[in-house]
Each structure stands twice: as C-alpha cells, then as structure tokens.
Amino acid sequence: MSHAFLVTFTNKEARNAYLPHPEHQNDPSSTSRAKSDLAQAKSTIEQKADVGKETGGRGPIRHLVLFNLPKDSEDSISSEFRLLKDKIDNIVKFEAGIIQQPPMKAKQGKMSHAFLVTFTNKEARNAYLPHPEHQKFVSKVRPHLTESLTVFDYKPSTLTTVPMEECEGKKNSNGNEDTFLKNGGSLSVLIFNLHCKLDLACFIKECKDAAHETKVPVYMEWGAMANNIIEKNLAQKGSHIIIMQFMNAKAAEAFSLHKAWTSWMKKYFQYEDKYTAGSNDSGSPSKNCGNGNSLLQELVTYFNVPKIS
Predict the structure, then answer these.
(1) CA-based angle 302:304:307, to the nearest 5?
(2) CB 225 within 8 A of CB 179
(3) How many Cβ atoms sit within 10 Å of the Cβ of residue 77?
(4) 47 neighbors 90 (Cβ within 8 angstroms)
(5) 246, 217 Cβ separation under 8 angstroms
(6) Of 196-200, 255-259, 286-290, which one has max mean pLDDT?
(7) H or E segment at 95?
(8) Quick one: which H or E segment has residue 119?
C-alpha cells in the first residue's frame, strides 16, 4: 500500500449512500447530479457549523474534579471551590461530595473528594480555566493536595432513566437529573477506556438493560472526554464516563450490588467487588450480543459519592 485516504461521513446512512453512488462507482452519466448533491451537502454542513458557533458548542459541559485532600484542610478548600460559582460567569451548577471508598482500579493514588461543575457550554469552560479567580484557587489548593488530581470534562448525554414507576409500583418521577439530585442525592462514577473493537451499540444496550433490571430509580448520563488541552499530568485518564444519579446512598449501594449490574461490569471490565471476588459466575445480561469477555475494556476508576450537594 502506498496511500491512505480517510473519509468522514455525517452518519452510517451517509456512508451507505456513498458506496453505490454513481460518482463513487465512476458512472459519467450522473456526474452533474452528483455535483449538485455534493454542493447541497456542503451547504448543509456549513449551516450546521454556523449553528454550532452560535450556540456555543450546543449544550452544557461537565467538569469533574477529583482531589485527595488532607482532613485539616478539606472544609476550607471545598468552601473556596464552591465560591467560584459566584465569582465566575456561566457556571450553571456546582456539586461536591466525599468519595465513599478509594476508586477501584485507580492507576495512581486515592481520591477523597469529588467536585462536579456544570458550565453553559465549552466556551464557558475554556474561559473558566485561565480565569484569575480560578487560578487563585489553584494556587491555594496545590500545596494541600496529597495526590495528583484527576479532571474529566464531558458533554452529557442521557443514557437511560429508571423512573420510580418502574420500581415496586411507585409513582411520581419526571425521569430527569433534577429528580434524583434534589435534597442531597448520591452519585456513582464510572470512568473507562473503550477499545476500538467494541460493539458500542451492544455495550450501551446491555448497560441500559442491566440498569432497568435492578429496579432501582436512577438517572444515567454519559459522555466522551472533552478536556481542555491545558489540563496535563492527570493521575487518571479515560476515554468515556458514565455518571449515575440516585435519590440517596442506599439506592446507590443497592444498584451497585445488584446481580444485573455486577454481571454487566464483570462482562466488560473483568470487575470484581468484595462480594464477588473469586466467583466463577461471570454473568451475561444479554445473549444477543456475543461474548463480551473477548473485548474487555479498561476500567480506570469506579466509586460512589454518598451525598452530593
């Protein structure tokens, strides 16, 4: 081979239309129509790009920060961090909590505190990082850190919701994140690296199926890493994140220990918790997607935050 050509399509349907296209098949009779189609497609792409600029990246960006803070300074640092919401524009929401246990499978160190900052869009996050007030906070907190920090930014997309009405006949749920985080909800965080051979559709389907099988009310969102380039030397790096939002810590624990969820975790991450370590039951939430154990993904960290506020 002497040359490589990489063509990017908007979606699978566009790729499927391209393969039998007359211009791709080198049919001269349809050259003018093909050029017209190409011009129209180019115009559409440019229009979409303009919309993206106007909306500032289309939607919010989450900024997850994990610290390992010493006991004597954790309260003051948490308070300082929280004050940034009032000092810097375009911070939609600030949430913080103590990590229940050290992150499982962590590459480096242990983390004690989680902070989740939501910005209006990517531009707001980019403006926040070099902001004088943020840099002032970074200077204050750096001497107190006992381990390297972890930062994971992502654009949230709803993965699935298990509403109250699905669980034990209960009613009253809007099925969105605010339902689960009001009155001090609980978080579970899963950061991982996806390998290119993974059947992503199957991975997501089985994740959703496992969540609904638990019968535990939960709002799940996920996203790919979208960190700013200036964030370097992180303790843990992953390609994707799943965040699960629960009503309380009891619900989060029930979910994480349910056989349906641990089976999905063991299938894709070779996950073992203290209750299932050494067990030969690898589990399989679905028989339709093949053998997930041949495509094990890298689990970077998985932990709970019992109370987020």
Answers:
(1) 160
(2) no
(3) 19
(4) no
(5) yes
(6) 255-259
(7) strand 91-98
(8) strand 113-119
